[in-house]
Amino acid sequence: MDHTALFADAASRPVEAARHVLDGLSPDALHTLPDGRGNSIAWLVWHAARQQDVQVAALRGGPEVWESGGWAGRVGVDRGAGDFGFGDGVDQVQALRIADADALLAYLAAVADDLTAYTASITAAELDDVVDTAWTPHVTRGVRLVSVIDDAVAHLGQAAYVRGLVEGWSVGY
Questions:
Q1: Which of 5, 7, 149, 162 could connect to 119 by a Cys-Cys bridge, CB 3.0–4.6 Å?
Q2: Whole-prediction pTM
Q3: Spatial distance between the Cα atoms of 57 and 159, rounded to a whole number of angstroms
Q4: How does pLDDT run across 142-156, given as a tens digit for each residue?
């Protein structure tokens, strides 16, 4: 398997997890904060997509899918470029309201497609390029790509857990 097929498979996994988590979910459950202070499913899925979008756009040097696709209006979240919720407190999490869960899933899928297209446009050797020297060891393009996918997977796991708390639901695998 080459790197393009590997990244395409990995990028699709958060989308499939989100599809299961969001299927049949009520708007109330989508926005419930566990114990009144945990992250809602809406925020977790939105953040999973946004952090990936922001970081891949930085790697490829172009606009975020959020901007180019007009997703703020489509999803109903008035947050601009570069804002992916890092550091949000309870008030910000509670204020994030998704107008259309299907649009949120479509945004996550568009972000995964963007990552897949980006990784298809680079060579395997380019995965070793250092893209961030603020960390020790320095972060390569490949490590950053794995990191954004890993973060999305982790947040979708949290979203599934929150749905279990809110509705007694399980993934059913």
A1: 7
A2: 0.94
A3: 24
A4: 999 999 999 999 999
Length of the chain: 173
The rounded distance, in Å, linking the Cα atoms of 115 and 83 is 18
The number of C-alpha atoms within 13 Å of 59 and in the hemisphere containing its C-beta is: 30
The Cα 51–Cα 95 span in angstroms is 18
Between the CA of residue 116 and those of 31, 52, 100, 150, what are the distances in Å?
Answer: 30, 12, 25, 15
Structure tokens at 77: 């979240």
d(CA 49, CA 78): 15
pLDDT at 84: 81
Cis ω before 63 (30° cut-off from 0): no
Q: Of 133, 41, 38, 51, which Cα lies nearest the Cα of 86?
A: 51
